[in-house]
Amino acid sequence: MSVDAITGAWQWLATAANWAGEKGVWHRLGEHLWLSGVCLLLSCLIALPLALWLGHIGKGGALAVNVSNVGRAVPTFAVLVLLTLSPLGTHGDWPTLIALVLFAVPPLLTNVHLGIREADRDVVEAARGMGMSGGQLLWRVEIPLAYPLIMTGLRSAAVQVVATATLAALAGGGGLGRIITAGFGNYDTAQVVAGAVLVALLALLVEGVLVLLDRACDPMRGRRRAVRGKAPAPPPGPAPRQDPQPT
């Protein structure tokens, strides 16, 4: 990337007129956040209940892995093009929503299922032995233990959706991708770079917010902090030497 492109992008972002109006940054940012939020919500509604149930009953591992592999192998752009050319293409943002949901479900499904299955089995069996029902076991034991992996899957899906939502512009949708496509249409490299920078900054911001949310909502935060605060026990030293007693 040339210095002129970076300088031009900075000038484009510093121009107040580029931030106002229906084609401005603020309007496009609102469209991008709405589209990403709806896609992430739909993905969670689909993936989380299925992954929690399969992980709890101890089945479906192959299904979760295969769905994840298929989802990563199919290009999102190809799915978007096919949906746009189908009858759904006349129904607003539905092609983009479906394509992004299919893209976000695999990391959620895989991480949540793995987190539930990798929960400490000794703790799970102890809770079962205390008479907990299946629902109590899932919500009070397995989910808190699987929380780190669940949040990892959520952060991964959220960042991927925010970054990939720029493809909505290719199907006539809104979002920050419209800034990039408009730059290509006008042969304005500075605008293209500025749009890419905005998308990257938004993805980093979403990642940071979810990291803070992860720390604030961790149900095991107090226990993990207590474990980290404990000093490791000193290694046992050699046994004291005992001199033989005179006979």
Task: Sum up the structure in keywords.
mainly alpha, MetI-like fold, 10 helices
Question: Beta-sheet strand percentage?
Answer: under 5%
Largest sheet: none
Listing every helix as H and every strand as E from the N terminus to the C terminus, the arrangement reads HHHHHHHHHH
**Total number of domains:** 1
Structural class of the helices, strands and pairings? mainly alpha
Number of helical segments?
10
Helix content: over 70%
C-alpha-based Rg, rounded: 25 Å
CATH architecture: Orthogonal Bundle
The average pLDDT is 82
CATH topology: MetI-like fold
Distance between the termini: 90 Å
Low-confidence blocks of residues: none
CATH superfamily heading: MetI-like
CATH C-level category: Mainly Alpha
Silhouette: elongated
How many strand segments? 0
Give me the secondary-structure topology:
Elements: H1 3-14, H2 25-57, H3 61-73, H4 76-85, H5 94-117, H6 121-129, H7 134-164, H8 177-185, H9 189-217, H10 221-229
Helix pairs in contact: 1-9, 2-5, 2-7, 3-5, 4-5, 5-7, 6-7, 7-9, 8-9
